[in-house]
């Protein structure tokens, strides 16, 4: 709720902040239990920072993270019910630890077993949940393929029996042929364990497939949020339209009738964002007011949109 995360990237000699990166600005999201919320946007728009702030890896500059009715953003520890799957399965696994040690670490941190036997049984259970065998428990990450390493990362995330998993581009570092397998695994696990996902991605086709609701981010702000069907069938925000225009459509009939918007220009420097609507430097519909006032995210007939065209 109204979550912001700002980083000081430069200070004066006297310690006064001189450059601040407003990575996440006043972001409000709502994820229902058992649901997948897709969070999309170009790289550098603040998706990962949002996920990490919800997870407790960063302390919010302002705003709250409310989990099961409890404000957890003031706590100084990470919540065991919220776990994360990272983008890069190569970098996120310690090369000197065996798979059993990697998956067993969260069990240890949270004291989730009473005997070594129980710990091993749990590790084997987790391995089979993600489609790996117990014989693989004593191997090291380098002995596995990219897809298998991501399975290890998923098993580690599941160790504490979390409720919410933040998936930060979990497949974008994998071969295309492996991506669908990992997505199917995530879906099966969601069904089987009743998990809730925040699914961060820039692959819009994948997000459409896996999410029930989608939020679109631009320069640290949510510009539109809607059910997946509404968002993809009828995008309202000019930035969402532009993002969706970039997906190739195999059917030529649809291609002709669809309103295509080309994104002009570069993503502005997030250290020096435009005044007014952050999208005004690239928006084909920008009006005078767009350069002066930043539109707030408003509920318009059940859809959330931040754009002066809809006021
Ligand atoms: Fe475009 Fe203005 Fe809407 Fe921003 S507020 S998206 S600049 S029309
Ligand atoms: Mg990222």
From TrEMBL:
Cross-referenced SMART domains: AAA
Residues of the ABC transporter domain: 1-244
InterPro entries the UniProt entry points to: AAA+_ATPase, ABC_transp_ATP-bind, ABC_transporter-like_ATP-bd, ABC_transporter-like_CS, Oligopep_ABC_C, P-loop_NTPase
Entry superkingdom: Bacteria
GO BP annotations listed: peptide transport; transmembrane transport
Molecular function GO labels: ATP binding; ATP hydrolysis activity
Database matches in SUPFAM superfamilies: P-loop containing nucleoside triphosphate hydrolases
PANTHER family: D,D-DIPEPTIDE TRANSPORT ATP-BINDING PROTEIN DDPF-RELATED, TRANSPORT ATP-BINDING PROTEIN
Family the UniProt entry places it in: Belongs to the ABC transporter superfamily.
Protein known as: Glutathione import ATP-binding protein GsiA
Lineage of the species this protein comes from: Bacteria, Bacillati, Bacillota, Negativicutes, Selenomonadales
């Amino acid at each position: 709720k109204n979550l912001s995360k700002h980083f000081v990237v430069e200070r004066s000699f006297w310690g006064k902040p001189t450059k601040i990166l407003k990575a996440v600005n006043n972001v409000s999201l709502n994820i229902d239990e058992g649901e997948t919320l897709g969070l999309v946007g170009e790289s550098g728009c603040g998706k990962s920072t949002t996920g990490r702030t919800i997870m407790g890896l960063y302390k919010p500059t302002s705003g709250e993270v409310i989990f099961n009715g409890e404000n957890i953003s003031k706590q100084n520890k990470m919540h065991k019910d919220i776990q994360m799957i990272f983008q890069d399965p190569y970098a996120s696994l310690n090369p000197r630890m065996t798979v059993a040690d990697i998956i067993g670490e969260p069990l240890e941190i949270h004291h989730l077993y009473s005997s070594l036997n129980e710990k091993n049984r749990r590790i084997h259970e987790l391995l089979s949940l993600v489609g790996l065998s117990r014989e693989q428990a004593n191997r090291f990450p380098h002995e596995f393929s990219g897809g298998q390493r991501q399975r290890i990362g998923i098993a580690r995330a599941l160790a504490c029996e979390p409720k919410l998993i933040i998936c930060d581009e979990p497949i974008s570092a994998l071969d295309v042929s492996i991506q669908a397998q990992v997505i199917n695994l995530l879906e099966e696990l969601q069904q089987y364990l009743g998990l809730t996902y925040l699914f961060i991605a820039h692959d819009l086709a994948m997000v459409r497939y896996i999410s029930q609701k989608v939020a679109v981010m631009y320069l640290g702000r949510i510009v539109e949020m809607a059910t997946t069907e509404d968002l993809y069938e009828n995008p309202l925000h000019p930035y969402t339209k532009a993002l969706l225009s970039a997906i190739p459509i195999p059917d030529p009939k649809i291609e002709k009738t669809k309103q295509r918007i080309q994104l002009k220009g570069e993503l502005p420097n997030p250290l020096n964002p435009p005044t007014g609507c952050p999208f005004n430097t690239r928006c084909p519909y920008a009006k005078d007011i767009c350069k002066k006032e930043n539109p707030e995210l408003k509920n318009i007939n059940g859809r959330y949109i931040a754009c002066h065209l809809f006021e």
